[in-house]
Amino acid sequence: MDDDRLYGLLTRMMALSPEGLAGCNALVRSVCARATSLPPLVAQGEPEDDPLLAEFAEQFAVDVSVIGADQRAAFLKAFGDKAFHVATLIFVADFVPRVRAGLTALGFAPVVEPVVWDRDTDPIDLVLNQFVSTVGALRALDPVTTEVIRLRGAGQHDCRLCRSLREGAALDSGRSESLYADIEDYESSVLLDDRHKAALRYVDALIWTPSKIDADVVAGVGAHFTDAEALEITLDVMRNAANKIAVALGADAPRVEEGTERYVLGLDGQPVYG
Fold this sequence. Notes:
This protein is mainly alpha-helical. The chain folds into 2 domains: 3-134, no CATH class; 139-273, AhpD-like (Up-down Bundle), CATH 1.20.1290. The protein has helices at 3-14, 22-36, 51-63, 69-79, 83-106, 123-136, 143-157, 160-163, 168-172, 177-181, 194-208, 215-224, 227-241, 243-249, and strands at residues 165-167, 261-265, 271-273. A 3-stranded mixed sheet has the order 1-2-3. The longest helix is centred in the middle third of the chain and has 24 residues, at 83-106. This is Carboxymuconolactone decarboxylase family protein.
């Protein structure tokens, strides 16, 4: 996969300023930056004065699992058929700065700033179809590490859908639920190896302390992963964190009521069930 294409998708997300939503977009970019103590994405125009949206975006960035039924209902009522679009813009405002911070900490080139605003592209399509599938198609990492990273994000964001799934290639590598159960308290695990733990420390830094990624976390990634693998981990964390949109909107129902369902990531990066 060409790194320029991956970086280009990040730049395109930064350029999003959909028709009629520029003020909302500017507001959530400012709010998410304050919540994560990271530099905000550039925005077109002045932020709208919308306390309800500001509160929702802040909670989305700080801990999406805490968004309650009343707050969700108020957001859905306020934005109606635009709620999914606005939630996706919040995700971009929340997570692209985290990825930029992670790439900077690991010594990668910076993401190029956009030069024109994109008022036409559907943010849902760009994020959930183009970005998610492009990253899902990466294969520098082994399947088990990819799955361990995914399940850590599922737990941290409390995504019921993500927790109900298990990736088939990782299962075929002989991994068990015992290993996956150790992800919650990975530092004390005897089943997860040093490579997994180094990855999980970096995952946690991007999710919880993106403005302060410790040098030992960076060193651990450098000791156990190639540049291609480190880039994939960083983008995998963002790909997995797209579950925050579903969690925020209450659309993260599990695919099965009991146990887990097997799926595989196709060559196109899309999940194949059954």
